[in-house]
Amino acid sequence: MNIFKDLLPLQIVLFGKKIKKAISKAIKLNDMKRIIKFFLRNIPRKYLQKVVYFATNSIKVFYLGNKVECSVCKKHYRKFLPYGYVHSRENALCPNCLALERHRLLWLYLKERTDIFKKDISFLHIAPELCFIESFRKQKNIKYTTADLESPWADIHLNVEDMPLEDESYDFVMANHILEHVDNLDKALSEIYRVLKKGGFAILLSPINPKRETTYEDKNITDPFEREKHFGQKDHVREFGLDYASVLKKEGIEIVEDRFIETLDRKKVIRYALANPDCLTIENYIFVAKKL
Ligand SMILES: [Zn+2]
């Protein structure tokens, strides 16, 4: 994690005054919602995880306790931090590794329902989440490659719609929360499925509006504020609905909508703060694309 320390002066110069003002205001008001939302809305995507990492690690001492536990980093706290771009969710973000509810759920899923930690595999992690990177890198059985358009810790910089990678070269691909950003969804999916080996699988999670029957996309909406109004975030270009599985479907690909969370003990769901166990929706399911 030294990269973060090395880049601290740069971040202070870039965002110093604004961050300082927001942190002191948030601490005075005991209002972490405000500061996390400030980061999400003002820090460029490229630097976001680093800046949030600094902020949360400097205040995690205030969250000491043993009421919730992070399945990814194994640390426990009295509660997790609030998190949300437009509406904040309570008890969401691990102050140590930045895992959110979906990451903690996915980690359990990968451990319990897949064999990626047991056999030799090649794994392409697109738009890699910080909370997972070190754990995957440490795995001797995984040939691990991270890829992203601009992320500073990506091994390869690429556009998911046109990846400079060999056909059928990965056993496992993971691309979470990117399909709502890409211009051409069809191209992005075709590329992900192209680089997957036969018998391999991809995990493709995206934000889904459970109130929407079908996925909503309108290429004429290009203004960031209009995009936020229509698709939920300034850099989203569509909003997925209950038809998400059929949106992912392509010839030679089987889509599994795994309701893994429903098999977990209620106490576990609460302990790991995976979701509200009384209000599970399609957003809590794991979507797996298997190449036949
Ligand atoms: Zn954690």
UniProtKB/TrEMBL annotation:
It comes from bioreactor metagenome. InterPro entries: Methyltransf_11, SAM-dependent_MTases_sf. GO terms for molecular function: S-adenosylmethionine-dependent methyltransferase activity. Residues 156-203 form the Methyltransferase type domain. This is Methyltransferase type 11 domain-containing protein.
